[in-house]
Amino acid sequence: MGAGRLYATVALGGFRRYATYRAATAAGVFTNTVFGLILVYTYRALWDLKPHLGGYDQAQAITYVWLGQAFLSTLAISGGGVEDELMERIRTGDVAIDLYRPADLQLWWLAADLGRAFFQLLGRGVVPFVFGALVFPAYLPADAGRWAAFLVAVVLAMLVGFGLRYLVALSAFWLLDGTGMTQMTWLLGYFCSGMLLPLNVFPGALGTVVRALPWSSLLQAPADILLGHGDPLRTYLFQGAWAVVLLGAGRLLQSAATRRVVVQGG
Amino acid sequence: MDGFITLDEVEKVFSVRRKTGFLRRERQEVRAVDSLSFTVARGEMVGYIGPNGAGKSTTIKMLTGILTPSGGRLRVAGIDPSRERSRLAHRIGVVFGQRTTLWWDLPLIDSYRLTHRMYRIPNARYRENLDRLVELLELRTLLDTPVRQLSLGQRMRGDIAAALLHDPEVLYLDEPTIGLDVVSKAKVRGFLRELNAAQGTTVLLTTHDLQDIEQLCSRVMVIDHGRLMYDGPLTGLHEAGESERTLVVDLERELPPVEVPSARVVRVEGPRQWLAFPAGQSAAPVVARLAAEYPLVDLSVREPDIEAVIAKMYAERAVS
Q1: Distances (CA, A) of B86 to A99, B92, B132
Q2: For chain B, which has fewer Cβ within 10 Å, the N-terminal or C-terminal residue?
């Protein structure tokens, strides 16, 4: 219980840290809205040519766009999560401080990232989404249960997103400069999470592969639940399995990294 | 061994890969700490000094459990640090002058709340300690200020308070006065002296600022190339380094170099002369002799510069 309170404090701190940067939040809201507008007009052109592309009607495609904008910073799909700070701490050696504390490194950063994600969802996600839903003919389910099921998938997406980014961050223990690694994973994540286009648009083997990768847990999985395209339980299982695998891999990599530091020096 | 901190023949060897050709790399062993043995008793305040790369930080990291020794035996409060890092963490406090443990973007008080949870400090004790530390370190008005807005001196005091909230029995300070102005340095030193006297906290202080040592530590350990070169009182360092005190003499007029037993003239400038004599020796006989035989106007004694003493020790070591 004592440990739970510690990580709750860390999460709350993560939330409040991002909340202090109001100008950055306002700028982010603006960017996400503008970006959403560009995508909405692109999608509408596409869906005019090919109605029911990927099984979505035009209203669902519009909702999908604004969900993407709401999740971009929440799930740190193109960077901006706690991994930036962790990598910097590894590079400068400040991570040594984190190691002597009586706290678990992974849980600590997970809590901090969840705090950050919830702030980004409320601070940066809600406004563009509401704007999009009001201005465009979006698809919004009336069923409160559907929204609740969707929110569960969002939380699972946060775990998977962190799991992925934590692995990337820990690579800094070996690579020293993780810039190349992060840029590669951002690019991969941007495409494979469905930020560019919904994953169910992609045909054949490519579609099957991207839908099986962990990134599809981020945007595609919660979106499908909200849009009535996915069975919640199966989606949760898929997301949960990836979360377990990724966080487990993170733990293994973490113990290898700490052993390396502890034996080899910072 | 009744020491609180004991090191017995502790070694730390890093293997470093060096590029020797286009794709060839060679493993090379670097001995950061070499058969280091010392004991620190409970309640002692010890200065730990040495040039950059001497092995000071490596020692501190081994004492916190972040690094595992390659050989030898190391105990802090009876605990093997690298094996039981978390258990030890509850009994030690660490302040790194160049790194902060505080939450950068949040008010200072938030970092203390976090420390409260992290070390599971009982509520009453947390409030009591926070109150005391905030008072002594003059942090009252800063508690609601985000850490990034604090000056270096304020931040350092904030870090020291964070390291002490859980009543550690031993405090490791790694350059706690680095970059601070004179007033801030005095505040930090005053606090540490008080802490050691009132709470009996064992303090191991790493520094490049020898005034820290002069003002705080009765015992000093000098390390270089991973080996202990000196361990004893600060005054003994002068003898070990064969340093000299200087007597500056103003005579009535220009005279040839004065002749006094056990002192020698090192410099003459008009009526003023500089005499050197061993640091362990009293100035009284030299002064008495001078006053009796020469037209003396004024004189003053200059203590040897401890920095020069240590620099000399390092240099001698490098030659041998």
Answers
A1: 9, 10, 26
A2: C
Q: What is the pLDDT of residues A223-234, one digit of tens each?
A: 999 999 989 999
Using CB atoms within 10 Å of the CB of residue B52, give its burial: 0 to 12 exposed, 13 to 18 middle, 19+ buried.
exposed
Give the distance from residue B139's alpha carbon to the nearest chain A alpha carbon, in angstroms: 21
| Cross-chain CB nearest to A265 (options B14, B110, B113) | B14
Token pair listed for A111: 């809590």
Q: Is B61 on the interface with A (CB under 8 A)?
A: yes
C-alpha span between A1 and B116 (Å, rounded) = 14
In order, the DSSP letters of A212-223 are HSGGGGTTHHHH
Taking the model in full, what pTM does it have? Answer: 0.85
User: CB–CB of A163/A246 below 8 Å?
Assistant: yes
CB contact under 8 A, A99 and B118: no
From the centroid of its chain, how far is CA A157? Answer: 6
CB of A97 within 8 Å of a chain B CB? The answer is yes
At the second CATH level, the architecture of B5-239 is 3-Layer(aba) Sandwich (3.40)
> Measured between beta carbons, which residues in chain A are less than 8 angstroms from residue B146?
20
CB B247 within 8 A of CB B262: no
On the CB side of B100, how many CA atoms lie within 13 Å of its CA?
20
Which residues in chain A (30-69) have CB-CB distances under 8 A to chain B? none
Q: How far apart are CA A218 and CA A17, in angstroms?
A: 23
Residues of A in contact with B94 (CB under 8 A): 97, 100
Judging contacts by C-beta atoms under 8 Å, the chain B residues touching residue A6 are 114, 117-118, 120
**pLDDT given for residue A53 in this prediction:** 93
Q: Report whether B81 contacts B88 (CB < 8 A).
A: yes
Structure tokens at A229: 């395209």
Domain ranges across chain B: 5-239, 244-303
- Which residue on chain B is closest to A94 by alpha carbon? B99
Question: What is the structure's pLDDT at B224?
Answer: 86
| pLDDT value, residue B1 | 45
CA atoms within 13 A on the CB side of B168: 28
Element (H, E) at B309: helix B306-319
Nearest to A265 among B67, B104, B120 (CB): B67
Tokens of A40: 């909405």
Segments making up each domain of chain A, as ranges: 3-265
For residue range A196-226, what is the model confidence (pLDDT) as tens digits? Answer: 999 999 999 999 999 999 999 999 999 999 9
User: In this structure, are residues B289 and B260 in contact, taking their beta carbons and an 8 Å threshold?
Assistant: yes
Question: What pLDDT is attached to residue A266?
Answer: 44
- The residues near A211 (Cβ < 8 Å, ≥ 6 apart) are A199, A200, A220
